[in-house]
Amino acid sequence: MARTLSACRRLIAVICGGFCGTITRYLLSLAIQSWLGKGWPYDILLINISGALLLALVTTLADATFLVGPTRRLFINVGFLGAYTTFSSLALGNVLLTAGQQWLPAFLYLACSIVGGMGAIGAGNVLGREIIHLAQRSVKPIAVTGQARPMDGTISSEHVDIDDDLLVPDVEEERLVDEATPPHHVDIDDDLLVPNVEHERGS
After folding, report:
1. Facing residues of 148 across strands?
2. CB neighbours of 41 closer than 8 A, spacing ≥ 6?
3. Nearest Cα to 59, choosing from 50, 45, 48, 70?
4. DSSP-assigned letters across all residues of the chain
5. Would you say residue 86 lies in a domain?
6. 6, 28, 83, 138: which has the fewest Cβ within 10 Å?
7. Is residue 66 situated within a structural domain?
8. Structural domain includes residue 196
9. What is the pLDDT of residue 158?
10. Cβ–Cβ < 8 Å for 97, 64
């Protein structure tokens, strides 16, 4: 039986990923600007290309249900990379270059962003498949919930990585399990815990 993530778990995964992605982009942007300068938007270009690479890599691994389960996919793809990459800053940088009549740098920036992003997506996909292929050769598939974990690049709708669910407890699932549990059996010997006062008074 397939298990689904609770709304609380999904929301917290996205929030935590977004926080980490924002901080990472800020610190990396400062480092790139201090290294290459601010005359051309090197920082946004490199951040967006690296984000595209990571997005394709994680998606490939998640589709094969290898290393990346539902919560990790939300944390990385939606939360972290959603905050890490930025299309608005790409557009702003291109507009600023055009407004300064830097036509060639503006064209190169836009071309490098589009072509580089598509190339990074392709490279991430290839890298992800290569990781799955190497893992398939080195280890045996691990059985999870009675089923073998597919590692051939195919998509599985049933598999949920058990470790992936440890981020936030699924309260709704625990409630359903408690409701399905039969009432606790009371043993006759349990009556010995409290003496029968009325019986003692009569005797």
Report:
1. 143
2. 89, 90, 93, 97, 109
3. 70
4. ------HHHHHHHHHHHHHHHHHHHHHHHHHHHHHH-SSS-HHHHHHHHHHHHHHHHHHHHHHTTSS--HHHHIIIIIIIHHHH--HHHHHHHHHHHHHTT-HHHHHHHHHHHHHHHHHHHHHHHHHHHHHHHHHHHHSPPPEETTEEPP-SS---SS---GGGGGSS--HHHHHHHHHHSPPPP--GGGGGGS--HHHHHH-
5. yes
6. 138
7. yes
8. no
9. 42
10. no
Residues, the chain: 203
Range of the domain at 153: 7-171
Task: Decide: 35 and 99 in contact? Cβ < 8 Å.
Answer: no
Partners of 143 in beta bridges: 148
8 Å CB contact between 60 and 126: no
- Here the tokens at position 149 are 């974990």
User: d(Cα 51, Cα 29) in Å, to the nearest integer?
Assistant: 13
pTM above 0.70, yes or no: no
Q: Give the total number of structural domains in the chain.
A: 1
Tokens matching residue 154: 């195919």
Determine the Cα–Cα distance for residues 118 and 112; give it in Å rounded to an integer. Answer: 10
